[in-house]
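Re: export button greyed out
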Amino acid sequence: MKLGILVLLLIPFGVRLNAITLTVGTDAQYKSIKSALQACNDNDTVVVGEGIYKEGNLIISKKIVFIGQPGAILDGESQYEILSIKSSNVVVKGFKLQNSGFSTLNDPGAIKVYDAHNVVVENNILENNFFGIYIQYGQNCVIKNNQIHSTGTEEQKIGNGIHCWKSDSLLIIGNEVSGHRDGIYFEFVSNSLVWRNKSKHNVRYGLHFMFSNSDSYIANQFIANGAGVAVMFSKGVRMYNNYFKENWGEAAYGILLKEISDSEILANTFDQNTAALYLEGASRMIIEKNSFVKNGWALKMQASCIDNKVSLNNFFSNTFDVSTNGTVVLNSFDQNYWDKYEGYDLNKDGVGDIPFHPLSLFCVLSERNPTMMFIFRSFIVDLLDKSEKLLPSITPMNFVDEKPMMKSYSL
Amino acid sequence: MNRIARFVFVDILKNSFVIIYAVILFLLSSSVLALEDNSSKGVLSMLNIILLIVPLVSIIFSTIYIYNSAEFVELLLSQPVKRTVIWRSLFYGLSLALSLAFVLGAGVSLILFVGDLLGLFLFFIGILLTLIFTSFALLCAVWAKDKAKGIGLSILVWLFFSLFYDGLLVFGMFQFSEYPLEKLMMVFTLLNPIDLSRILILLQLDVSALLGYTSAVFKEFLGSQLGIIISFVALVLWFVIPYFYSLYKFNRKDL
Amino acid sequence: MIEFRNVVKNFGKLEVLKNISTRMEAGQSIALIGPNGCGKTTLIKSILGMVKPHSGQILVNENDIEQSIDYRRQIGYMPQIGRYPQNMTIAQVIDMLKSLRQDQSTLDHELVESFKLADIADKKLGTLSGGTTQKVSAVIAFLFNPSILILDEPTAGLDPLSSEILRDKILREKAGNKLILITSHLLNELDELVSHIMYMQDGRISFFDTLENVARKTEQAKISKAISVILKRGSYE
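Workaround output, generated via the alternate export path:
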């Protein structure tokens, strides 16, 4: 009985006492990582010392803390998936992972999480890998402060920086991704937070998500990605305080929205994108308090967009503020600041007394007939736009901001 | 340069109008290029100046000058001077003087503030447009005997190339909107030196991304080295052909 | 010296020169006369190449004028109304012409001196009176000592004194075996100046004969009288 009590008392201590730290390195207890991974048990910590480890595919199948000391480099020799995490509750920290294998068959990544929850991947440096961090069927995983770089130029030959598939409740925080196909990729991922990441110079999209509902994207920077950010077939998306810059090119967007509904785009900055916000089949969106600066098109709203509210935004120095291919307007524009507004404010309430029509005739014509772009920047375009302003005949009449602001918002 | 051309050249330089032209170009170009924080926006404004003002001034000034030189031409005709030489001298003198005004007025700030290939493009296009519209002026002057008619004609020519032509294209584009017109547009570009210049420059700029797939056709052609060479050859032909046609007419004209 | 072979010129539907064939020789001083619009000026301008005939040939010294412009070195032309670049000074125009001709060995400065043009050489041509402009025209016509002188209304607009200077000059040139072609409405002043009369009407040369023959046929010594006799008679013969 006494012994029984003692054993019961010892069980929690026993667990603790059993958790040991295994060290790997040339002068350490284990010479290879593989042997350490084999020797360890759940709750152990494996610490890897300085050195380049070329051990092919490392599989973590126990819930361990896996720590790289400064200079610990895992090399995939361009052949192997470097780290496969097949257990929940794993922490991977402080490694440099480089040269993963390349295969479009099984998409090898530097770190790949298989069907696990509560995995933390933190403070790693990933270089020149096919996929960076790949999570499938993950839950409550945290990917934090990783530096993920590659030097891809062709879409087919490079994978995504952070790739998440069929996962839930992920936290993607403070990572930097560049040179991959898509910086951050979500497919069937819900209830997740993407916060303070920097995604730039990726070949395709800085952020790309599909069928991913109820996710939040906050304070990220998407700079100079081949095609900007693409958001498709999702709802309940919240995008706040992000920065979309220099996503410039014939098929580049600040954000491409396709079949999106019930989402919010608030307080973002769009700077020098070809099309800052492209909406196709978007409905019930709230687009508020954003700054659109020096974009080709600030808003490109296709005819299939309904019930979107565009209000309290700033429009500065965009070539075209708004463009649409439709004739019926089912969206509202309210109290935005338009730098092209030339109206007046007699009662000094800060709201222009005459409505602003943000749609230029040339925009309408060129949407209907793209060949019209042929006369872009020609003298006749100025004349057409001026005459349309005086006698509107082709642009949809109700495409209008009834309360244009006289002064810009400080956003 | 022969004596007559030199005389014409010096005579035009003495004309206060050309000096004002150069000064205005200088003020416009330096303010647009130096003050604009966004250099690409400055280049676009510069492009508008070059596409509008340079042709207008070149054609109208040249037309008026040729009519005002009627006496001079008459005097020379009674002398042992070939008509070809007289006409050539007028063209040389006018185009050199106007080009010089452009170079001093706009060229300097282009090289200074824009530099690189783009500045060079704008620079040469400005000069080419000067030559093209000077030769159009020769054509107008040789066609219309009366000065008022000639100046009217030259304004029409300018309006045609900078406005009506594009207007007709817009009309055509909507009439035939169901047909693929991109390739055809390429041909139409070559047929208007102002459009050709505009698109050549636009393709060098970031804003070309806004052209969408229309630009793909242009880029494929005008963006390539061969395309650029062909475009510049086309621009050269645009002043060579009208000039030689006007010369042909002048040689047969009763004075 | 100058030969017209079947020269035809139309301005639109209007036939101005109707198949002109004639020959003018050195030593002749010809009064080219006829009513307004008879084709005198067109005839002169076609010699100078300013007007291009539709058909026919014009030869100067047996050379087709379309072949080479060198024949104009031998021509001094004084237009009816001299029109010069407004901004040039007299000196500049004369210098420029000298440099164009490039044969300054036989320059004739006589008229420059007698018209006292040196005093106003720096005046711009645009500021000159009609008479002074005529003086400039005359100076230019005689300057290069040409063997053919074409003078279109030479004394029109000149003051009597200058007019007299020019007449004297023409008389001296007449003695020098040159071909002189003068048109004038003032038939009286032609009497001593010319040796031949060419009368044009409706684009044709009605007659071209020596002064003596004309006087004999009309029994009139004065050209003006002779012409009126011919006009009354209806034909020259």
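Chains A and C do not touch (no CB pair under 8 Å). The button fix ships in the next patch.
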